[in-house]
């Protein structure tokens, strides 16, 4: 008989499941992209090797697909996602116009920056939005995310596995960060993105997106906002209240409706996960999000 570790990478009782199933992930994802853009070489790697400037929302959806597969997918799906990402990165190069040097996109320092900016954003936004995680659970989340880091080619022991280690990492890397033309353009794109073709039907409502983009910006660390200086400062309590309201509203959206924002392949993967877990005795009538409740696990308790 298969155990839960054979069915899904991160089981419902993991800290990762609680964070990644929360709808604050949309804010965390955009915040992560804004934060990542402050590393000149990492940003130029994206700029020179992708269509980010034409379709930043598409990059967010592709990131969501990878995160989904290394969280809710089967071990085989996660391994394949990792192989695909590593193969793409291995073939890409980025030229630094400041030095004239050419770097590999899969340089460990660049991969580490992208990973840390991403997972710290997910965690910090979810906690600030009202997801009740203790310090110990937050540390556990970062430890669990070392598995995702390994998928892109990092050595797990080189990746921050606690909040204290993550804070020390950002303190160490901050002298390297700055606002390049590409970074400034990235923030503008993320506040006013070009919608992918299949979502152009939503274009009339695009002005309503700006408050969301601004919310993502205001959740950045104080030092990052000072570097960008794009929007006037507002009280921290106002941002927290807006984030909590966003979380409350988004978490009330039925899972089938919410999942329409994902790429078709992502939706198919999530549906396959529901079916596997349902066959294993998990109560999936309220979707994957419902599995944050231990009463919906086989036997009504954690394995």
Order of helices and strands, N to C? HHHHHHEEHHHHHHHHHH
N- to C-terminal separation? 14 Å
Number of helices: 16
Low-confidence parts: 201-205
Shape: globular
User: Can you give the mean pLDDT?
Assistant: 91
Instruction: State which percent range the strand residues make up.
Output: under 5%
Largest sheet: 2 strands, antiparallel
The strand count comes to 2
- How many domains? The number is 1
Q: What is the radius of gyration computed over CA atoms, rounded to a whole number of angstroms?
A: 19 Å
Which percent range fits the helix content? 55-70%
Structural class: mainly alpha
Query: Widest sheet: strand order?
Result: 1-2
InterPro entries: MPAB/Lcp_cat_dom
Protein name: ER-bound oxygenase mpaB/mpaB'/Rubber oxygenase catalytic domain-containing protein
Pfam family, one: MPAB_Lcp_cat
